[in-house]
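Researcher: If convenient, please comment on what follows.
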Amino acid sequence: MGSMKCIALTASLGVLALGTCAARADAPCNRGYRDTTVAERATMTRILESVRRALPPAPEGWVIINDDPPTVPANLCMDFERTPWPYQYSLTYRRTDKQAEMDAGTRAAAEIMKADLEKKQPRLDAIQAKSMALVKQQVALMEKGDMPGALALNEQMAVLQEEGRRIMEEGDAEERSGAIMKEAWRDIEIGVSVQVNPWSESPVGADDTAITVAGSPTAAYRWDSRDAGSYQGGATVLFGQWRTMSHGGRRLVVRSHVPANFPHGISVRVNADEKRLQSVLGSIDFAALAGLVAP
């Protein structure tokens, strides 16, 4: 199947006018493409400007690194002209008042790993010396044409390699170093992404938990990613009409009386440190976002 562009797009650092959903990404465009009209683009731009105003300013000690003007689809595949057009606005917030702590944590973690390696180095050097001696023996045997004898030394090489692996894995230096880095680099970035007319939304993990936010959303849930080696948390908030799917996700309900470039539904995704997530959610004007969804 040919690659389909459904809705052609332009993108800037933090603002992305999305193409079609993944489910239709490989379908051909049989009816061809057309440019979106000035009026259609103006409507989508107005929607994204409203989205932009609904998102919070940077907290003290933070900056927004991609506060770019909204960009909307310039053309579309006419096969999907009558289905809701997806487009998006995102912001990324970066912390600026924690650099010294991050640098200190990085140095401390590196020192732990350096000291651990120095402690293990004599034994590793001894293994390396034995391995090099075996290699020389293998070369000598191969030069004599004794391939069985050379291959027989591979077993001893494997034993040495396993011994080296066990030495490298001894102790808890890696865990202590990782814990320092994890703490030093926590709470340094916030991401907020608002998708207009996403085709579907799926749970991020099995630990999704329903939450309450302003704006009377259709659904709102959060999760955390401690198992992934960070303290990041996340939340998804949905507005509009959604149908629950068998695997637990939700699919946007298309309403025939609503123009394709108007919001049939909105999905808001927030990623932030688990301790900051609730305050970020509280700073978003969800009521304004809810008001963008066509009745």
Q: What stands out?
A: The chain has a mean pLDDT of 86. DSSP finds seven helices and 13 strands in the chain.
